[in-house]
């Protein structure tokens, strides 16, 4: 199983206020923008590419969303690091065999077709990692 960094999720209070840094200072390009109102997600997302690297800016859509809670508890900044795998189910099985725990309620397919799950930070010394896979050919 190969693991490749897919993106880094950055929690922000306002995408509009954060974007100029990524677009003007880092010379990034805005690749996509969408909102997920799925309960337990509730986030506005801006996908920025900089020299082949992807950053997702994550803005909460309400006070009770996971990103809003994260910002209250830890402040703005890096929320998670996502690793792309070819076979998400196999990656989960392999990790479980090594004692890794997952945040089970996060297993889902997002609005852009990416399947994902978050690893419980208790298994990673406190860092939130996402494992993700894409439909064939993407």
Report what the structure shows.
With 138 residues, the protein is an alpha+beta fold. It has three helices and eight strands, in the order βαβββαβαβββ. It has an eight-stranded mixed beta sheet. The mean pLDDT is 95.
Keywords summarizing the entry:
138 residues; alpha+beta; eight-stranded mixed β-sheet; 8 strands; 22% helix
Number of helices: 3
- The low-confidence runs, each spanning 5 or more residues with pLDDT under 50, are none
Strand content: 35-45%
Mean pLDDT: 95
Shape: globular
What is the CA-based Rg, rounded? 15 Å
- Class per helix and strand makeup: alpha+beta
Query: Numbering strands along the chain, what is their spatial order in the largest sheet?
Result: 2-3-4-1-5-8-7-6
Biggest sheet statistics: 8 strands, mixed
Distance between the termini: 18 Å
Order of helix and strand elements from N to C terminus: EHEEEHEHEEE
Helix content: 10-25%
Compact summary:
Helices cover about 20% and strands about 40% of the residues. It contains 3 helices and 8 strands.
Secondary-structure topology with pairs:
Layout: E1 4-11, H1 15-25, E2 29-36, E3 43-50, E4 53-60, H2 66-74, E5 77-84, H3 88-97, E6 102-109, E7 115-119, E8 129-133
């Amino acid at each position: 199983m190969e693991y490749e960094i897919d993106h880094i999720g950055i929690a922000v209070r306002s995408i509009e206020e954060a974007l100029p840094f990524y677009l003007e200072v880092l010379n990034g390009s805005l690749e996509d923008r969408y909102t997920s109102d799925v309960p337990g997600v509730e986030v506005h997302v801006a996908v920025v590419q900089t020299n082949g690297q992807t950053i997702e800016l994550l803005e909460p859509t309400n006070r009770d969303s996971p990103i809003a809670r994260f910002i209250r508890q830890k402040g703005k900044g890096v929320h998670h690091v996502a690793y792309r795998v070819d076979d998400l189910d196999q990656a989960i099985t392999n990790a479980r065999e090594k004692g890794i725990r997952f945040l089970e309620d996060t297993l889902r397919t997002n609005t852009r077709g990416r399947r994902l799950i978050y690893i419980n930070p208790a298994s990673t010394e406190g860092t939130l990692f996402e494992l993700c896979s894409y439909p064939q050919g993407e």
